[in-house]
Amino acid sequence: IYIFWEFVGIGSYLLIGFWFTRPVPANACQKAFVTNRVGDFGLLLGILGFYWITGTFEFRDLFKTLNTLISNKEANLLFVILCAILLFAGAVAKSAQFPLHIWLPDAMEGPTPISALIHAATMVAAGIFLVARLLPLFIVLPYIMNFISWIGIITVFLGATLALAQKDIKRVLAYSTMSQLGYMMLALGIGSYRPALFHLITHAYSKALLFLGSGSVIHSMETLVGYSPEKSQNMVFMGGLRKHVPITKTSFLLGTFSLCGIPPLACFWSKDQILNDSCLYSPIFAIIACFTVGLTSFYMFRIYLLTFEGHLNVHFKNYSGKRGKPFNSISIWGKGSLKRINKRVRLVTLLILNNHSSTFSFSKNKSIIDETLRKITHPFITHFDNKRAYFYPYESDSTMLFPLILLILFTLFVGSVGIYFNKETMDLNILSKWLTPSINLFHHNS
């Protein structure tokens, strides 16, 4: 599991630093790599420590041998607890739990589909899966489960409060992911194995829908501000997009409803089970978890209202904050500084070429050149003649809308896999049937 754990990390680091010639994504990639080295080093030490204690890497033999050693008091309990904490450190770093959460917001510098992949299905889910896989080991050790649950509840509250103050739409969703991963870690810490994995599934579809929806919004905002992540992702410049991107608006609203836990959408069923189990386990955990649900609703509807409601807060001619300078180019490669286009020289050159196109010796290319020059010069001439002209956002094409529609269907119906049914009509829900082998192993070894 450690080898493929590292493969997941390598792929994620390279995807975060996709725009490797720009300093900010390169630094974000470096930060994610260094932070996860701390956790991965602890994970490796923990694996070697348990191998030294039990003499095996196999999960089933490891759980059985460790149970026997602890029952017969043949193992040094402090050393076993230390190895368990080192194993958990790997999950803390990979799943962006407190205090190794600092890499996650900066990971948003990668392309938006990459952000959706990392936050929904791959990198951050690996830590939750590791803790769930090793739960029979953790549960026989004193204080470890309490430690896991406290890390989870701190992450739940910290992620939600940090999300409240962000202006970047992707960074809000990043801190939201951190908070929801805290719910999963809390559930594992209190022994709620099935609700934790259920929330991992439902959150994945909802968060993928939200990230792809934010990508569609950013793509539409680039019509106004060009390629500038500081502006196209800033919710201060957005507003009133519901009439320009109606499909994206609907999909984002459904994802927001799901993440807030509004029935009958996916996250309602899993989050409700986690809150119920936390109430049974500890009143403190229940109060913090329920209060954070309200914070989640606040920052998610804050995103929706700032982005889609109200009026558009930026226009093409003055988005840079300087009047009279409507044409600026922002390089994809570099620091993103504004560079003035010499429009007079470019227009004069194009018009001279257009007027002297009859001098070309190739008559077959004449009409093609004239038509091309007309298409190039027409937008420039139109804009300079009409100083009140504006550009507006537009809906994405089918290649971006099709995944949104597909994820809407999953967000609506994936919660049904974990709903409890009446035993007279159905013995178990679908998720419990999938998890039956691992649950049997869990009870056998604990």
Automatic annotation (TrEMBL):
Membrane-topology annotation of the record: Multi-pass membrane protein
Function: NDH shuttles electrons from NAD(P)H:plastoquinone, via FMN and iron-sulfur (Fe-S) centers, to quinones in the photosynthetic chain and possibly in a chloroplast respiratory chain. The immediate electron acceptor for the enzyme in this species is believed to be plastoquinone. Couples the redox reaction to proton translocation, and thus conserves the redox energy in a proton gradient.
Catalytic activity of the protein: a plastoquinone + NADH + (n+1) H(+)(in) = a plastoquinol + NAD(+) + n H(+)(out); a plastoquinone + NADPH + (n+1) H(+)(in) = a plastoquinol + NADP(+) + n H(+)(out)
PANTHER family per the UniProt record, alphabetical: NADH-UBIQUINONE OXIDOREDUCTASE CHAIN 5
Residue ranges annotated for the NADH:ubiquinone/plastoquinone oxidoreductase chloroplast chain 5 C-terminal domain, each copy included: 302-446
Keywords: Chloroplast, Membrane, NAD, NADP, Plastid, Plastoquinone, Quinone, Thylakoid, Translocase, Transmembrane, Transmembrane helix, Transport
Superkingdom of this protein's organism: Eukaryota
Homology family: Belongs to the complex I subunit 5 family.
Name of the protein described by the UniProt record: NAD(P)H-quinone oxidoreductase subunit 5, chloroplastic
Subunit details: NDH is composed of at least 16 different subunits, 5 of which are encoded in the nucleus.
One term of GO molecular function: quinone binding
GO biological process entries: ATP synthesis coupled electron transport; electron transport coupled proton transport
NADH:quinone oxidoreductase/Mrp antiporter transmembrane domain segment(s): 1-296
Transmembrane portions of the chain: 41-63, 75-93, 113-135, 147-166, 172-196, 208-227, 247-268, 280-301, 400-421
The species this protein was found in: Galax urceolata
Compartments reported by the entry: Plastid, Chloroplast thylakoid membrane
Record-listed E.C. numbers: 7.1.1.-
